[in-house]
Amino acid sequence: MDQSDRARLAEDLRKKNLPWQIGTEHSSGASLKWFSVLDLASGIKLGLSWNANWVRKGPQSVIEFAKGISPVFLLPMLEMPRDSLHEHLTAALSSMGLSKDLINALPIEDTIATALESGSEHWVGLGLDWAANSTPSERLQNEVLKLATNGPTQALRHAAKKLSGKWTRSTTPSTANGEEFPNV
Fold this sequence. Notes:
Largest sheet: 5 strands, antiparallel
Structural class: alpha+beta
Distance between the termini: 12 Å
Order of helices and strands: HEEEEEHHHHH
Number of strands: 5
């Protein structure tokens, strides 16, 4: 999502009568204005900041996923089927009278890439599942290629080889930056 789209969405958010809260931002300790959008079954509470960035509410602070912030705290979201997550987010935003374009601000591709880079059998497996249903961006293709030779298990290396081969046969690299969720 480019800066002008994010600025437009942030302006739209600020005009709405939303249940704004003030939380402590996780990394800086600064105050952050945000509101809750969705509580996922995995225990994740997702919301949006005043700046139209997605946030995750933690036990004592709020993590704002602005550009360059690692989405490691969003990994549990990959435990949910992507279509289900998309449906829940769309319904939650719609019920609040908000644009579904806000979904495009969720760092899906970064979260998938973080899972693929994690070295954890669990997260790599989920990352491969999500990547298989995503637009094969250059970044995701590179991570899957790395896993094909250096994945944590033989089964995951084989799955990565299969996915890489599928992408090579059927697509060309794209530069999609997660702006087509649910297809990333």
